[in-house]
Amino acid sequence: MPPRPSAEIPQSPTIEAIAAAYLEAAKGDPALAMRRIIQDALTDLCEAERRTLRRDRLISHGYVRGTFEARR
User: Fold this and answer.
1) Model pTM?
2) Segments making up each domain of the chain, as ranges
């Protein structure tokens, strides 16, 4: 049974340029380029999660520090 074709990733000039830049930086080693791409993506993901958590904490502190005025 032949392998199923994988879903195609839409290509854009930006994707191609990024891939070419990583491959060039890795001196033509596709495995090294792929590892660097994954490492950079995970670093960006962790930074985004850190910012989200920080934002959530700031929002929570805002609610705690807020005052409640009772109507008379």
Assistant:
1) 0.59
2) 29-65
